[in-house]
Amino acid sequence: MNYSLFLARRLSLSADGKRMSPAIGVAIAAVALSVAVMIASICIVGGFKREIRDKVVGFNSHLTLTAYQTEYQEDNLISLTPSMRKLLDDTDFITSYSLEAAMPAVLKTGTDFKGVYFKALDGADERAFIRKNLVAGTVPAFTDALPTDSMMKVVMSEQAARQLGLKAGDRIDVYFISDGIKVRRMDIEGVYNTHFESYDNLYLYGSKKVIDELTGIGSDKGTTLHIATDDFDHVVEYAARLSEKLNTAYADGLIYSPYRVETALDRGRNYFSWLSLLDTNVAVVLALMTVVACITLISGLLIIILDKISFVGTMKALGASDRSLGRTFIYVALKVTAFGMIIGNLLMLGLMWIQHTTHFMPLNPEHYYIDFVPVEFNWPAIAVLNAGVLAVVWLALILPSRFVARISPSESMRYE
Questions:
Q1: Residues linked to residue 98 through DSSP beta bridges, in sequence order
Q2: 358-377 residue pLDDT tens
Q3: Cα–Cα distance for residue pair 77/370, rounded to 1 Å
Q4: CB neighbours of 232 closer than 8 A, spacing ≥ 6?
Q5: Domain ranges of the chain
Q6: For the whole model, what pTM was predicted?
Q7: What sign does the dihedral 382-386-387-392 (CA atoms) show?
Q8: CA-based nearest residue to 344, from 32, 24, 40, 27
């Protein structure tokens, strides 16, 4: 006789056989809620990490090279010589690189002024990053073919524009501080806002050709070299490999200055430390929600056993073994778990997809550096989460299912 199948069907229904048991309904709801919260944690924290990483990389690139000042070199500028270009081009993990230059400047209007760094915006990656965060105007396409007069265009942060009472299309006097003070009247072509106040409050973006003309450093020199790699997750390894390669080239006389290699993780250490705290929070949430689901299912299983104790005694009297009855209870609980997981997945993944496409849930950018709740669908992590929940629940149900062995046919008659 197939006791397992017969009993599993009876346990899933109430006494009248027409509707689900309240205990099972509560268990399904608890599992659905727990899984939904866990999926939301993974998606939202993954989104935060992606957005913060992209902003830090946008300002600093994957790797940043700066030159040490030596007795053979009066300044600490980077020279993009043919041998340096060849070294970078022959490095397999480097996908692109661009010279960067910055110099202090003062923005002055008729009533106010503000100190900033005028920073070159000639690299394609940098322009794409600023364009992504543009709130007004456009990002100029600076090329060497254009005359210097056409380079008198800048992109200003929204924070600086608000402080000075400016907007896209206005003009601003920029006082450059070098050997002396030189002034240039420049057009504000665009206004951007990354919500990173420490960066937004610091930089005014323009053409490197302006810095070259003011300082006379030449188009093949800059204060830093920004390097993009093929995989951000390996930037620490890439930094070590590139540093070793540069040191070897310097020792062999192929390049004329030692270089320091920094990763975006180094330059944005405060932001990434904050993200590591979020990882800890996610681990706590996953553990708590798993415990809640397990406790609810164990309680539901015990309620079902107590509710069907007389029926279990009858099945034992008819020859059903303790092992088969225990397996049946676990089967029912796992069925409840799977049903709750399906509901939780569908509801939360649907909600996360709506948030991903519409950004209807806002955030305070002053606290979170982002003005909406970011979402990233990490499908491998979601799949592992579901498999892990199912496995943990199965292990947690083994012990309460053994309660069936304590039920004797004679004692169960008391519950009739």
A1: 226
A2: 999 998 888 888 889 999 99
A3: 34
A4: 53, 57, 62, 264
A5: 3-55+271-415, 69-101+217-257, 103-206
A6: 0.79
A7: positive
A8: 32
